[in-house]
Every structure is written in structure tokens, then in C-alpha cells.
Design a protein that fits this description.
The chain is α/β, with parallel strands linked by helices. It has helices at 2-25, 48-63, 76-88, 102-110, 138-151, 166-182, 199-211, 224-231, 259-271, 298-301, 304-318, and strands spanning 36-40, 67-71, 93-97, 116-120, 130-133, 156-161, 187-192, 216-219, 234-236, 250-252, 254-256, 290-292. It has a 5-stranded parallel beta sheet with strand order 2-1-3-4-5, with helices on both faces. A 5-stranded parallel beta sheet has the order 7-6-8-9-10, with helices on both faces. Strands 11-12 form a two-stranded antiparallel ribbon. Helix 7 packs across helix 8.
Length: 334
């Protein structure tokens, strides 16, 4: 009798393991009809980070035939409610930025295992349906630093960022590393405004740096280019092509192209093979997920040797013979 009980218990354990494995490994259902995609953003659409995700989803609506809608400026207190509303309405893919509502987004996703969730995150994915991505644009940030190191006359370059978090730190560190790689006299200045979107505060921080000697400044946040334009110094933009904000001020800057990420995710969901994974690699230059903005007016202003140096280093990044170091520690001013 004891042997039979033991065998039965073992059978139950085996069955539980099989069921658990099935829950983890079984892909989400495919979408034969038009895929409904929702974007949920903590900041306004105009904020650079969110803008790139939004624009990529708008493009996917035109080119991939999805149905796309979004909610912007969603506060953490409302994040779970908005997520649930979209899930209950049958949206097969829900994307967005969730750094401020990270735990909330993950809890909600667990309640809707048949819905694909893909959010910006500095943490890993969670089975079975919570995928993550991030703006791995440190490579063009490094190239921007190379330009800054060559163009500075004071040998002091600066960067104004949102918060001292890994996603921002690595961009500012790469920018400084690029500048120092080509100019051993360069000193780097860093400021953080403690917000993802506060243009007046970013402008104020930029002015303080410029008055301290910075003559090429990395506008990791909105508001910095306005300060650079007013003070007549050079600027590096971020996330998108922002030359229009200061045609005589903005040299170039890293662009984050979210379309390769979104195209891949949509293909997985439509095929019914989506699983929780980290899609961050699709933001690298070699994948087309990031690149340098056009020089525009500076195409004639940048010395030929500077453009050649950048082109050479960019080619090495693309073919894998040069790797930009990733440093996510909080940068400190020299």
C-alpha cells in the first residue's frame, strides 16, 4: 500500500511538472485577424524616449497593418487600470515605458497570460508573457563624443541627463569616453535634473554648464538645445533628429530606431510564437536600431578628418571589430 501511495504521489508530482512546463513554454495564441496594439506611456508623446516608440508603432500601423492606439501621460496610480482596460478589450500586444511603474506592469501582465506585454525596462523578462527592451544607443553616443572631443575649443564638454539611472548613465559615459578617446585634454561635466521631462530645468542646468566653460553639450533631455542655441555653443541631440530645434547649433546625435524591435515583436505575436524575452539587442547599430543623425548644416562645417574618423569608427562598430564599452555607473564630473 505504501508503494502504491508513493507511486501515486510521484505521478502527481510529474503531472504538476508537466503542467507547469506547458504554462511556461506554450506560446501565446496567433492573431489571424488584425492585431490590436496599445501603447501606454508615462510621459507626453513629445518626450524623446516615448516619441521613438510611438513613431515606430505609427509606422507599423501603416506598413504592417496593425490597429494602434495609445495613452500618454499615464500616472503610476492609473497605470494598472489603463493596462487592464486594454487587455480586457482584446489588445493582443501592449507596449510602453514602465520604469516608474515597473512592478505594477509586471503584476498586471501575470493576470493576462494570453496577452503579449513588451515594456521598456532595466530588468529582465518574466515568463510567460512579459518581454522587455531598452534604448541601447551607447554606440552612436560614443561617436557623438568623438565629434565633441574634436570640436571643443575649451576642452570642456558637457551632458545634461534626466536621472542617474543605468539607461541614461551608459549614454553619458559613452559620450565622454568618445570625447576622451580623441582628445586627452578633455574634461567632462555632468548634470541630472531628476525628471524624465522638465525642459525648463534642463535648460537651466545646461546654462550653468555653459557658463562653467562647456562649449559642446549633449542634450540627453529636452531643453538643453534651447540653452545651447541661446548661448551660441554646439549641441548633440538625443533619441531623434533634432536639428530643426537649432540648425546652427545641433551637429548630430544618436537616434533610437524602435522599428526593428517592434517589427520583430509583431511578427512573433502574429505567428503565435511570442515568448518573454529581452529584445534590447535590436537597438544596436548593427541591427539598425540606432545610428547617428544626419549632419545637416554641419556637413560643410565639420572638418573632413573628423567625418572620416567617425566613419571609420562607425564601420568598425558595424562589423564587430570595435566594441563600445558599457558603463552604467553614475558619471562624475572631472
Amino acid at each position: 500500500m505504501f508503494a502504491r501511495a508513493k507511486t501515486k504521489a510521484g505521478s502527481l508530482v510529474l503531472k504538476a511538472v508537466v503542467i507547469l512546463a506547458a504554462l511556461v513554454l506554450t506560446p501565446l495564441p496567433s492573431h489571424a485577424e488584425t492585431l490590436k496594439v496599445a501603447g501606454i506611456f508615462e510621459t507626453p508623446i513629445e518626450e524623446p524616449w516615448v516619441k521613438q516608440i510611438h513613431q515606430a508603432l505609427v509606422r507599423a500601423q501603416k506598413e504592417l497593418g496593425i490597429e494602434y492606439t495609445w495613452s500618454e501621460s499615464v500616472k503610476s496610480a492609473d497605470f494598472a487600470r489603463v493596462m487592464r482596460e486594454y487587455a480586457e478589450k482584446g489588445y493582443g500586444l501592449i507596449m510602453g515605458d514602465s520604469f516608474g511603474a515597473e512592478r505594477i506592469a509586471r503584476r498586471v501582465a501575470r493576470d493576462y497570460p494570453k496577452t503579449a506585454f513588451v515594456f521598456g525596462s532595466g530588468i529582465g523578462p518574466a515568463e510567460p508573457n512579459f518581454g522587455v527592451f531598452d534604448n541601447w544607443i551607447h554606440e552612436p553616443a560614443y561617436l557623438s563624443g568623438v565629434i565633441a572631443g574634436k570640436m571643443t575649443k575649451t576642452n570642456v564638454v558637457g551632458a545634461v541627463g534626466g536621472m542617474a539611472i543605468p539607461e541614461i548613465n551608459r549614454l553619458m559615459n559613452a559620450y565622454c569616453a568618445g570625447a576622451k578617446a580623441v582628445n586627452d585634454k578633455v574634461r567632462c561635466k555632468f548634470s541630472f535634473i531628476g525628471s524624465f521631462f522638465d525642459p525648463p530645468k534642463a535648460k537651466e542646468a545646461a546654462i550653468a554648464q555653459i557658463e562653467a566653460g562647456v562649449d559642446v553639450i549633449y542634450a540627453e533631455r529636452f531643453g538643453v538645445i534651447e540653452a545651447a542655441k541661446g548661448k551660441g555653443v554646439l549641441a548633440i541631440s538625443n533619441m531623434s533628429d533634432q536639428a530643426a530645434l537649432g540648425p546652427d547649433t545641433v551637429i548630430t546625435g544618436p537616434i533610437w530606431n524602435m522599428y526593428p524591435t517592434i517589427k520583430h515583436v509583431i511578427a512573433l505575436v502574429n505567428a503565435g510564437v511570442f515568448t518573454a524575452q529581452d529584445f534590447g539587442g535590436f537597438s544596436f547599430m548593427a541591427k539598425g536600431g540606432s545610428y547617428l543623425a544626419p549632419y545637416h548644416k554641419f556637413d560643410d562645417k565639420l572638418p573632413a578628418e573628423v567625418k572620416e574618423l567617425v566613419a571609420k569608427r562607425q564601420g568598425e562598430i558595424m562589423d564587430g571589430t570595435f566594441r563600445v564599452d558599457v558603463s552604467e555607473s553614475a558619471p562624475k564630473s572631472d
